[in-house]
Specification:
Layout (H helix, E strand, L loop, with lengths): L29 H12 L33 H19 L6 H11 L6 H12 L4 H22 L9 E2 L2 E2 L1 H5 L1 H22 L6 H15 L4 H11 L6 H26 L4 H28 L2 H4 L5 H4 L5 H5 L1 H19 L4 H16 L3
Antiparallel strand pairs: 1-2
Protein name: Heterodimeric geranylgeranyl pyrophosphate synthase large subunit 1
Pfam family, one: polyprenyl_synt
Pathway: Isoprenoid biosynthesis
């Protein structure tokens, strides 16, 4: 069941009155202060100092009020068009070549389908700051390569031990554990090579380096890996809300954040634009995991396309487990509202894709 109201693609949205019919902005709760901390306490990664990477000054944060209206926007058509373009670029980036087995394994998981949320976030963030999609397509492919690597490795017997991913047998079930590990490793290294080699020359080398640094930070021992190792360590233990947030911000939100921020950097975004988008991404990144936790306890394996109830079975810390299902849904609504607040800085027509992407993440069913 969708626990947030789905908003049609051709509906005018007045964010100062709410997030659409039946979905008012949530009242002030104990989560409001917590959300502000989420957006402020994680500092930008160790990119080179520049007008893009320097922190925001307090007077820059006020900017525009939350009172703009989105124009008509066909989100379904937009996602189909963008996903088709990303899939074509991914197919070209990983051709079937020798050694055949490793490239078959890479392509099996990389081209398995999905909405391509992270690549589309990257492209939309590039455009919202005035860039062209072509500037960010290699990065969009790179974040999907890395996301696919994490799924392959997460499914391994030594990790989550899953048999099903996107409705298909997991990589190691088809190709064996050794090949699955190497396929993930190959996708990770190819991601950085692809950005360095394929980003068009109208993007300055300085921006390419900053984007690569941002992406590397999101994946490494202070990013995704940190969240993963803490997630493993928390199994079967009582964890606090702060510890759970740390796990999910790093394990899930960091790569979503990098997708958005790298797109903005490559598109030539100003410091305030990049940091507004960073805050937006932190909220929807955490939202993605909160929704994932909720779906794990409310959906079947057939509906999810992967094994349902795995978190409960392994006694992992989740938001429904720690807060209860109703409060987890309330927290998700607050995250959407905070993300919308960050988008109010931008031109409404350019912000429409990112608005609807946040709404999609909130209402996704698998």
């Amino acid at each position: 069941m969708a626990f947030l109201t789905t908003i049609s693609s051709n509906e005018n949205l007045f964010l100062h009155k709410g997030l659409g019919n039946g979905f008012p902005l949530p009242p002030k709760t104990s989560y409001s202060h917590h959300l502000n901390i989420i957006c402020m306490k994680i500092q930008p990664s160790h990119v080179a100092k520049s007008s893009v990477s320097q922190p925001l000054q307090s007077q820059e944060v006020a900017s525009k009020p939350l009172n703009f209206v989105f124009p008509d926007f066909n989100f379904d058509e937009y996602m189909k068009k963008e996903a088709k373009m990303v899939n074509k670029a991914l197919d070209e980036a990983v051709p079937l070549q020798n050694p055949i087995k490793i490239h078959e394994a890479m392509r099996y998981s990389l081209l398995a389908g999905g909405k391509r949320v992270r690549p589309v976030l990257c492209l939309a963030s590039c455009e919202i700051v005035g860039g062209e999609e072509s500037m960010a397509i290699p990065m969009a492919c790179a974040v999907e390569m890395i996301n696919t690597m994490t799924l392959i490795h997460d499914d391994l017997p030594c990790m989550d031990n899953d048999d099903l991913r996107r409705g298909k047998p997991t990589n190691h079930k088809v190709f064996g554990e050794e090949t699955a590990i190497l396929a993930g490793d190959a996708l990770l290294s190819l991601a950085f090579e692809h950005v360095a080699a394929k980003t068009p020359t109208n993007v300055s080398p300085e921006r390419v380096v900053r984007a690569i640094s941002e992406l590397g930070s999101a994946v490494g021992s202070q990013g995704l890996v940190a969240g993963q190792i803490m997630d493993i360590a928390s199994e079967g233990k009582q964890v606090s809300l702060e510890e759970l947030e740390y796990i999910h911000v790093h394990k899930t939100s960091k790569l979503l954040e990098a997708s958005v921020v790298c797109g903005a950097i490559l598109g030539g975004g100003l410091v305030i634009e990049v940091e507004r988008l960073r805050n937006y991404a932190r909220c929807i990144g955490l939202l993605f995991q909160v929704v994932d936790d909720i779906l794990d306890v409310t959906k079947s394996s057939e509906e999810l396309g992967k094994t349902a109830g795995k978190d409960l079975e392994s006694d992992k810390a989740t938001y429904p487990k720690l807060l209860g299902l109703d409060k987890a849904k309330e927290f998700a609504r607050e995250l959407v509202a905070k993300a919308m607040e960050e988008l109010s800085y931008f031109d409404a027509s350019k912000a429409a894709p990112l608005y609807h992407l946040a709404n999609y993440i909130a209402n996704r069913q698998n």
